[in-house]
Amino acid sequence: MWNVLLVEDEAFVRRSLRQLVPWEAMGFAIVGEAGDGREALALMHDCSPDLVIADIVMPVMDGIELMKRAREEGLECAFVMLTCMNEFEYARQALEYGASAYLLKLSMNVQAIEETLNKVKRQLVRDLLARSRSHRQPFESVYRDMWQSIAEGKAALWLPTGEEPGGYGRFRSVAIVSFLHGTDRFTPETFLELGIVSPGCRAVLHMHSHFGQTTVFVWDPAAFRPQASRCSIPWPAVYARPVERDELSEAWRRVLRTMDRIWYEGASGFIEADAPDRLPAAAATLRWDTEREWIQSFEQHKADELQSRLQAGWKEMAERRLPMAAVKETALRVDRILALIAGETGTPEEEYMASVSHEELGRRLLSSAERYALKYGDVNESATGHPEIDKALRHIRRHYYDDLTLKSIAALVAMDEAYFSALFKRKTGVTLMHHIQQIRIGAAKRLLERTKLPVAEVGERVGYPNANYFIKIFRRWTGTTPSEYRVGTN
């Protein structure tokens, strides 16, 4: 909603304006009326109008002087002037001082007013977006770092209090609304059309998007009316009413954690963020052992076991109330790993973004895993023609991240260690440990290329729990460190 102040010394003209125009339907709200320019100027400081519709000729202070004084005092609202046919010279002056338009009182009709209001609204939106872009840069890294901190359950981050131009110091308050819209297009114009906020002529609007969820920050809003939306929305939207600048981190944490709850429970429409004492505690990630069991079941072609374990893991996530973003990251990571094992292209990230509930995301991951399983069979295994060596190769491929030794694998195929070692090299052309390292480093390279896992965790996942030893082996095979390799491939 854009706030409007009506300034006209004739009461019946103000009344006619109120009755002629479907203000709310057009996205405007009349927040005050005044009978002269002096009264209007005082009201402008109190109600922060976005648009002033003012008569030009008025007692005490006329409309031209009102506009000049408003500009001098830093009130950057739009003006539409009301004039009579014989006051055209005044109207010309008003346009020179920056009025958006003027209306002739004697021929005023609904169509003319609505056309003028639509023109003004487009101007207000353009000005807001331009102002927001000019103030965006100092906030980019803060939004990113703060989101990561909240998503991982770490201590809150606080905004600096500097008064630098374009920085945080110029703002007093911020309102927050977060939308779980999936792959639906969501723009600043989409948000403004909802009509839940009156940005005002000094506000800026920022958006931060991640995994199909967009959080909108309105800095110094003129008014916030979450129950006044003119539109129904198909997604859940969680809001926090305006808070002081240094309360941003805590307010956003409440919004995100409330959205996490809705992610599990299901809801749509506008929902106020839970109070701090109602927020559930949350673990940031799923245990690696759980993911490892899923992957192991897949590699061993145990479809029923994989389905059972996935369902159990999904239930565990719901019980522990893991943050939605962490769940989506887990699903996407597991999808990529299973696809790599099967030699398939992973499910597009957009499909996981589109999931607007925990249950839906679980079904999507299970469906992808079943599809990969159809492509992943013994035909993908290296065949030497020797049953015991082929059995050993399959075991290594499916358990490369376990503690594999010559003794354990020779026992698996019921052979003497020395005889098995010599036979393995004769049939494959490499030693057993050489082959194991090949498989592990290949898997590590794929994880470094396709995921953002820390280097130490990549090493653990491919069978090297000691990070330093993993880096040493990786360098021996590739000539570079894992971190250097990741930078070079991204």
From TrEMBL:
<dbReference type="GO" id="GO:0000160">
    <property type="term" value="P:phosphorelay signal transduction system"/>
</dbReference>
<keyword id="KW-0597">Phosphoprotein</keyword>
<dbReference type="InterPro" id="IPR018062">
    <property type="entry name" value="HTH_AraC-typ_CS"/>
</dbReference>
<keyword id="KW-0378">Hydrolase</keyword>
<feature type="domain" description="HTH araC/xylS-type">
    <location>
        <begin position="390"/>
        <end position="488"/>
    </location>
</feature>
<dbReference type="GO" id="GO:0003700">
    <property type="term" value="F:DNA-binding transcription factor activity"/>
</dbReference>
<dbReference type="InterPro" id="IPR001789">
    <property type="entry name" value="Sig_transdc_resp-reg_receiver"/>
</dbReference>
<dbReference type="Pfam" id="PF00072">
    <property type="entry name" value="Response_reg"/>
</dbReference>
<feature type="modified residue" description="4-aspartylphosphate">
    <location>
        <position position="55"/>
    </location>
</feature>
<dbReference type="InterPro" id="IPR018060">
    <property type="entry name" value="HTH_AraC"/>
</dbReference>
<keyword id="KW-0805">Transcription regulation</keyword>
<dbReference type="Pfam" id="PF12833">
    <property type="entry name" value="HTH_18"/>
</dbReference>
<keyword id="KW-0238">DNA-binding</keyword>
<protein>
    <submittedName>
        <fullName>Protein-glutamate methylesterase/protein-glutamine glutaminase</fullName>
        <ecNumber>3.5.1.44</ecNumber>
    </submittedName>
</protein>
<keyword id="KW-0804">Transcription</keyword>
<dbReference type="GO" id="GO:0050568">
    <property type="term" value="F:protein-glutamine glutaminase activity"/>
</dbReference>
<dbReference type="GO" id="GO:0043565">
    <property type="term" value="F:sequence-specific DNA binding"/>
</dbReference>
<feature type="domain" description="Response regulatory">
    <location>
        <begin position="3"/>
        <end position="120"/>
    </location>
</feature>
